[in-house]
User: Which sequence fits this backbone?
């Protein structure tokens, strides 16, 4: 039972890799939404001040500054939401009022160590605070081009380092899901391969134990088209069937095993080129004296290859016949002990 729960925890990503390296406590839905907003805003900031193609208008660095400022706001709010969830209150943190003091309020509530680390050191924290709290898109736009570029790079880096601890667990979980999905796929492929291998081995075993290979057979009648010679079930003259009866009532083929033997399965391959419906309904009977016959299987639906297993019977003769008036022609019959 314990191993079963461990496997379930593994699938739920209850423990991933080295848990001491990353905190895998999931963020609340609200915190995840806020982190997503922060990531998007900072991505757009990067796109603005480091565009892949030339932008049609000037002032992109100032816009990037404001986008990173927005990213910082959402990241600080996500941090507060996460800390509220961890503290056990259960209720989402209320957002500060959306006025000029909102970012300052969030900044004052955030641990100084987090801010210092995101700023690249405590000596840079005040400079970043001044950029974020003391300015807006209006002030950013009035800066010189050089100052805009420097501020955009500084604020982007700050926001990126602030977001990283929040986004890292989710990315780690996603990577873990990918690894585990890959492992499950490898296991599935291995199981499929084992299944094919087992089937191949079983087919080879069936071929080796096929009682029909040494049995003689006799059809109830012979159509003039062609026929193999008993005990053969394959010949150049008839590539699609090894016997072909006339149209008659209950056309049949009877196999003689030459002595009473154990029989538990019959495999029938229908005519290969056409007319598979003629072999329906196909009845399989066994007998030890060729007088008393016992029905062991009946096939009513169309088939290309049909295998039927039944409780082991002791029999010398095996009859396959169509329970109506028609032709009968089959490509191969295997009789398995």
Assistant:
């Amino acid at each position: 039972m314990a191993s079963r729960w461990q496997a379930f925890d593994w699938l739920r990503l209850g423990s991933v890799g080295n848990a001491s390296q990353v905190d895998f406590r999931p963020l609340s839905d609200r915190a995840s939404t806020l982190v997503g907003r922060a990531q998007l805003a900072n991505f757009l900031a990067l796109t603005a001040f480091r565009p892949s193609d030339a932008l049609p208008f000037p002032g992109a660095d100032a816009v990037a500054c404001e986008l990173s400022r927005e990213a910082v706001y959402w990241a600080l709010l996500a941090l507060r939401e996460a800390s509220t969830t961890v503290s056990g209150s259960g209720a989402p943190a209320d957002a500060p009022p959306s006025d000029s003091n909102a970012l300052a309020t969030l900044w004052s509530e955030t641990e100084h160590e987090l801010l210092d680390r995101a700023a690249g050191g405590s000596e840079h924290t005040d400079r970043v605070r001044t950029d974020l709290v003391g300015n807006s898109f209006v002030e950013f736009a009035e800066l010189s081009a050089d100052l805009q570029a420097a501020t955009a790079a500084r604020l982007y880096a700050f926001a990126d380092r602030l977001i990283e601890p929040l986004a890292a667990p989710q990315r780690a979980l996603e990577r873990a899901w990918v690894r585990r999905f890959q492992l499950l796929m490898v296991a599935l492929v291995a199981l499929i391969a084992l299944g094919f291998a087992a089937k191949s081995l079983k087919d080879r075993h069936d071929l080796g134990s096929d009682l029909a290979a040494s049995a003689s057979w006799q059809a109830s009648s012979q159509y003039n088209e062609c026929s193999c010679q008993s005990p053969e079930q394959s010949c150049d003259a008839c590539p699609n069937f090894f016997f072909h009866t006339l149209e008659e009532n209950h056309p049949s083929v009877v196999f003689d095993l030459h002595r009473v033997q154990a029989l538990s399965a019959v495999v029938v391959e229908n005519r290969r080129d056409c007319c598979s419906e003629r072999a329906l309904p196909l009845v399989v009977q066994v007998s030890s004296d060729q007088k008393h016959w016992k029905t062991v299987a009946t096939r009513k639906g169309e088939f290309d290859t049909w295998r039927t297993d039944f409780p082991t019977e002791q029999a010398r003769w095996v009859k396959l016949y169509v329970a109506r008036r028609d032709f009968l022609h089959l490509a191969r019959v295997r009789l398995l002990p």
Remarks:
- The helical segments are 2-11, 29-49, 60-87, 102-109, 112-119, 122-133, 137-142, 145-209.
- The radius of gyration is 39 Å.
- Residues 1-24 have pLDDT under 50 and may be disordered.
